[in-house]
Amino acid sequence: MKKRNILLLLLLWPLFSAGQGTVRLPLNGVWTFALDPLNTGVPDKWYTPDFPSAGFDKVTVPHSFSVDKRYFFYTGTAWYFKKFNAPVVQKDNRTFLHFDAVFYKTSIWLNGQLAGEHEGGYTPFEIEVTHLLKEKNTLAVSVSNAWDTTTIPGAKASDASESPAMAQLYPWMNYGGITRPVQLLTRPAAFIQNVKVTAEPDLKKRNARIAVTVFLENFQASDAAVKVSISRQGQPGNIRFRQLSANAGQVVLEGTMPDARYWNQDAPNLYEAEITAGNDTMRKTFGIRKLEIKGTQLLLNGEPVRMGGCNRPLDYPGYGSLDPEEVLEKDLTLIKSGSMELSRISHYPVSESMLIWADKHGLLIIAEAGNWQMTPRQMADPLMRKKYRSQLTEMIKRDWNHPCIVAYSVGNEFQSQTPEGIAWVKDMGAFVKSLDATRLITFASFNVWRDYVKHPEDEASQYVDFISTNIYGNGQLAHLQHIHEVYPNKPVYISEFGMRLPADGQEEERIRYFRKAVEVFRQCDYLIGASVWTFNDYMSRYPGTDANGYRAWGLIAPDRSIRPVYAVWQEEFAPAVIELLKIKDGNAIVKVAARLDFPSYTLRRYRLSYGGQSTELRTLKPGESQELTIPVTGNTLTVSLVKPGGFTVVTKTFDALR
Question: How far is C-alpha 609 from the chain's CA centre?
């Protein structure tokens, strides 16, 4: 097989986007909609172009019929219809329908013909429609949000340890519909399918070895010439690449980026790359950073980091799981300002909009796909394993270029002490590594701290890079010490902890709980993070849900009003402490100390804000401090610690008359 020289000037850690060679036709907006509770749509051929759907209701896609008051919390089959015009596909082009997410099972018809089907509610998929597309088109989409023991998420197979009510349900809502954007993509016949970029930063030389894999569709090996240009903030960069391998399906190149600007939580440096192959072009943004596990430490770019975090159920009144920009911006600003920067954020893949925000502003995300409390029988079922791998693959191939993704979790609270649970983590961890070996592997264990786990081989955490565990109630210190005794050489991450809001709505008990929990965390130098359950309240039909339909675990209420416990969390999980030392001659001496215990990481380019002014602090490593002299002009002195990017992470008001 001949290999041609491939020119490439490059990149790293990209986001999915089409470029000049791909033409996008958004299909969002007004669609026609109808419920189909008796499943008559297919036998009655609702998908045909002449089906009289004009009298059906109108909805706006993205759409969740679960929160549309006309169909409130309907479970079953529903249909979406869209008529649109499109240019005739030229012989040297191909056309695809791209759905960012549809919950949960989907069948798609175009112009009366079945174009394809998909299962999985949170990940993107494409269906080729080149042979079906016309100048005038009728698109029909059948969606079912029903669940059973074979869906992910879904009910559990019969399990004697569960009550019948709990075994039939999972604890978040099955928000059905076309919940994320839809578009028609027209590409050249030979096109770039995806790009995967990996980097190995040399922290001493401040450069990075970049390996770029370009996945090609319908190219001949002799035609697979690839060009890449790279820029940062509009300024071009130059990298020389050598070709490692090439065939009709993919090209791999390698080069070194000099003077690399690394990505971290306080300096989220991003690059843009333009990749061209044949007549197709794809643009991607990316960041460069090094992740390592060293003993019981998590290192980011060679420095230990220990951080707070959160779980954010995808739920907002009136929107369900849609995650519109105005909600996303509000939530993530509160998360960043609360120093919740290392998060097992959800039990399922999040929207790509969230990952883009996290890339730009510096959040570290543990991505998780499915397997919420699957039973051993389900984990051993070849069908369930196949479905899970499919959803996992769609998530990873979408997310593998986001620098914010630091680890993949292969599940939550399944029976990890059983042979089936152990085999699941071993097999799925290896499967993840076969797709993306650059991230860490973990899962959220509800068993690793229990007394019957006495040796590493007793539980599936033997196969992870760092242990994640859900710990509630009292006894946190004993549980963490037990984990560390069994796995002395692995870091520990608390993927869930928290306390539900009492029925009377009073926060005092929760505040005491959080303060006590933080005291425990600071005693465990092997603890790399703690993710509160939850950032926000979420709707549920799971047994034990409050009468208003919500599970009130949130630091904030469903409408995003901030509860008192948020301020406690913000102060306790800020990476520094502000202290007033003394007031003399109209000036205050204020000390800013970077935490040494938890959370802790090096502070760079932080500012102390006061009285309309601000002063940039020097670099403070964990345990270091700086004293500043601040003029006092009133009876009180208010100072705030501000992160790079403008996020205020802690504010203190002192009595200036003392």
Answer: 32
